[in-house]
Amino acid sequence: MKRSHSKMKTGILWIFFILVVFYSIEYTQPRYSLFQDSHDKAVQTYSIWQNHFLSDNLYYPAKAFDPNLEFFHLAKNLYIKTNEKLVSAFPIQFAYLLAPFLFVLPISFLPYTSLLFLLLTFFFLKRYYHFSLLLITISFFGTFLWPLSWEYSELPAIFAFSTIALYPFLKKGSSVSFQLISGVFLAWIIIVRLDTLPFFGIFFLSHLYFYLKRNGFQQLQSYLKSYSAFLLSTIVFLILYLSINQSLYGHFLGTRFLANSSGFSAGFSKRLQWFLSLLFYSNRKIGFFGYLPFAFILFTVYWYKYKTISDSKKILLIATSLTLLIIPFIAPNDGFNNWGPRFYTILIFPYLYLLKPFFGYYYQKRKKLFFSFLLTFGLFTFSLGILGAKLQKSKTNLEKKFAPILTEVKPDILVLQDYLNFYTCGSYYFDHIVIVSYTTDLNSKLLNRILTTNPNSKIAFITWNPVLFSKEMKEAINEDKRKSGYPISEWEEGKLETQMRLITSDFQILDRQTYRIWTGTVKSK
Questions:
Q1: Does residue 376 sit within a domain?
Q2: What pLDDT does residue 367 have?
Q3: Which of 271, 319, 392, 418 is most open to solvent, judged by the fewest CB atoms within 10 Å of its CB?
């Protein structure tokens, strides 16, 4: 009876935890989170689905009248043109994995797929690594896994698959089938995120070193034999993915490497700044130790006790520490505006694996002082998560509040002034022509062109309302754009109005919320 009652209590707690996780993500309004990278990855996924999985040629609704991409919204490091195709800079493996969901989900619901990877992770941590519910709660809310789950992204999948890929090397006695699956996941992770290579390279070399140190070099053949299934599946799928990249894009490392090639040439001073922002805090970006300050203490203790810890923990400690130092000097950027250092997603699980013995020991022993100390750091990280969730909601509110304007105006062609306010269109992009025009000359060129190509179409030019944005505010926004490498936008509003009156009927100038809108129906010649 007692055992039955305990199981029921545990089941209720698990259901409550899953509901809290769902609400914590739902609070940020994932339906309206198709913004920047999330939107770009959704477009890539939609393109594969629309092309019936036969091509990754990128969907661009204005391609018919803009073959030279003069009004294309993506920055040059986010797409490439190859073999007469327009393709996304993001690896296709993630998009192909998620594209089947579009048979049953609307495009705006893609961000919710992160929940599937979280559920897989929770199951695996509980079943195979014996994490308690409390520790799994900390794994989600006490790390930057929480903010990484707010948008449509491969990062929750990277975390989930990494727990499976490392299992045969952290736990003894894994079956052949388990090794095969782990190898498949490892190959997928490496291809989707090339920045995981340092961690996995150091991890597996360290694992081999400690094995041979313990058993002698003559046992190398035995080592390779014991992990033969894992090695076979990893090598086969890596060769497959690399061959696909070479065939489609002319480089075995794929689109992400090609598109980011300019970022790899960043100077040493820039790399030092990235070192601070990725590891600690700089330029309004929170790094690994900034988000997880307890990790610094944890790693320090492990290094101090290095001689007494198990080989598996030594291997994780070495791989994690070196990866923390290497990434700032090989990354193409510092993660831009991510809440939490996404380049270190692969290190969340090693941190949790090293935390588990500490957590269990002090929780069981009731050492209140130390446990309170640990809890304080956990609450600090949780507070950062809450702050990030509020910031994320303020971002998704931009799209949510913009949607009624689009419903009212109903433009067939939507023209936005810059790369950033473009993303307020959200899923409207998938059913209409949505483009960016940065200058007055481009506005003129566009209007002359659609007079021929798109007669009787309703067009709307939208920018920030100049009445609400002072010159100082505009300069501050432009300065942020310069720092981030975004182009500066400038429209001559008087000239735009004159041209619109000439080539459109039903012309109107509307002020809605913080936007000014010039709209009308393109006349027939």
A1: no
A2: 66
A3: 271
| Residue 385 half-sphere exposure toward CB, CA atoms < 13 A | 24
Domain annotation covers residue 379: no
Neighbouring residues of 35: CB distance < 8 A, sequence distance ≥ 6: 151, 395, 396, 398, 399, 423, 426
Q: Are residues 460 and 344 in the same domain?
A: no
DSSP state of 342: G
At 22 the three-state DSSP class reads helix
The number of distinct structural domains making up the chain is 2
404 in the same domain as 346 = no
pLDDT of amino acid 28: 96
Beta-strand ranges (E) seen in 371-418 are 413-416
Domain of residue 276, residue span: 1-365
Kindly tell me the burial class for residue 354, based on how many C-beta atoms sit within 10 Å of its own C-beta (0-12, 13-18, 19 or more).
buried
Q: Are 188 and 261 members of one domain? A: yes
Q: Are strands 458-464 and 413-416 parallel, antiparallel or unpaired?
A: parallel
d(CA 318, CA 96): 34
Residue ranges of the chain with per-residue pLDDT less than 50: none
State whether 457 and 317 are in the same domain.
no
199 within a domain of the structure (yes/no): yes
Spatial distance between the Cα atoms of 208 and 169, rounded to a whole number of angstroms? 10
